[in-house]
Amino acid sequence: MSTHVVIIAGGAGTRFWPAGRRARPKQLLPVASQKTLLADTVDRCAGLAPPEQTYVVTNEVQREATVKECSTLPEGNILAEPHMRNTAAAIGLAAIEVVRRDPDAVMVVLPADHVIRPRERFVSIFSAAAERAAATDVLLTVGIEPTGPATGYGYIEAGDVAAEVAGHRAHTVKSFKEKPDAATAAGFLKAGGYFWNAGTFVWKASAILSAFEEHLPGHHAILQKIDAAGGGSPDPDLYATFENVPIDIGVMERAQNVEVIPADFEWDDAGSWLALSRLNEKDAQGNVVRGDHLGLDTHNCIVVSGEDHLIATIGLDDFVIVHTKDATLICPKGRAEEVRDMVARLKEHGRQDLT
């Protein structure tokens, strides 16, 4: 069995503004350690595949920064989309590259911007998933065991046990559920057998291409043309014809040969600035500080600044303060999810230079 890892690294950089921008979205920021989320993901995946079998799918705007963050990978393994057309197109582009190099390969597909700990448990679960995928043509997803009735994630409803591999059980998938309201999420938790959909997948590269042919024939036709052109940078005009559809809706929710392996590792999708409080050590006042900060009567804040710029705070509690060379964000923690709305407002006011 030969395992190839594909890391999906796109995004618009809106949730971590002003540090996050179109050219530097959250996976290119140090959120959970001194390394960027992308660099942490590449390091984590070293336990699954060697560098020459590890790929990152990004876009042309972010390609240069992505190459710098992935110095351990061959530059030819950084695949850049000329247009962002959602995860189905990105995964298809990677699949034809993997099949070109190894027709029998198993693909492990992961987002670049998630935090998973401990590494050993991650490797154990995804190695078992790869072994299961190598033995059959199923499309596997790895579902996160919920720690509460979260409304911000989609859910996977598991069915009967289909196989047991290296101590991990693969279940049939009954259904995929969209992000629920609070009452529905509580019902999922009480019923059991529901897992958070983290957008992580394992399958033979050939199996996912067959699934494209069956469920997304338009994608499959475009991928065949890209493949026939010999790889490299796909033609922008051709790539623009991909339907903008995620792999979950385009393939996983339509296919019958889908299984889920539950995962019990620590998982965080680092969805906003609040993730820094969950993922980093705090000082004696409960603050998470990145950079130069001096606080007086300041508690439970997130403070991010360059080393050459002091942020001084007095009498603040539960605030997010982020300073960059051209913009500063100050907001209550309870409104951190509205950072995306601020980016939209900047665009409305013609300030694309800041997005």
Strand order of the largest sheet: 6-9-7-8-10
Taking pLDDT < 50 over at least 5 consecutive residues as the criterion, the unreliable ranges are none
Main beta sheet = 5 strands, mixed, barrel
* Backbone structural class: alpha/beta
Q: Please write the string of helix (H) and strand (E) elements.
A: EHEHEHEEHEEEHEHHHHEEHEEEEEEH
Mean pLDDT: 96
Strand fraction band? 25-35%
Radius of gyration: 21 Å
Put simply, the count of helices is 11
Helix content: 25-40%
Straight-line distance between termini = 43 Å
Shape: globular
- The strand count comes to 17
Task: Write up this protein.
The protein is an alpha/beta fold and 355 residues long. 30% of the residues lie in helices and 28% in strands. The chain has eleven helices and 17 strands. It has helices spanning 37-45, 63-69, 86-101, 119-135, 182-191, 205-215, 217-228, 236-239, 247-252, 275-279, 339-348, and strands spanning 3-8, 54-59, 78-81, 106-111, 115-117, 139-144, 155-165, 168-177, 194-204, 258-263, 266-268, 288-290, 292-296, 302-304, 310-314, 319-323, 328-332. The strands form four sheets. Strands 6-9-7-8-10 form a five-stranded mixed beta barrel. The protein has a four-stranded mixed beta sheet with strand order 12-14-16-17, with no helix packed on it. Helix 1 (37-45) links the parallel strand 1 and strand 2 (54-59). Helix 3 packs across helix 6, helix 3 (86-101) packs across helix 7 and helix 6 packs across helix 7 (217-228). The radius of gyration is 21 Å and the shape is globular. The chain starts with a strand and ends in a 7-residue tail after the last helix. 44% of the residues are buried.
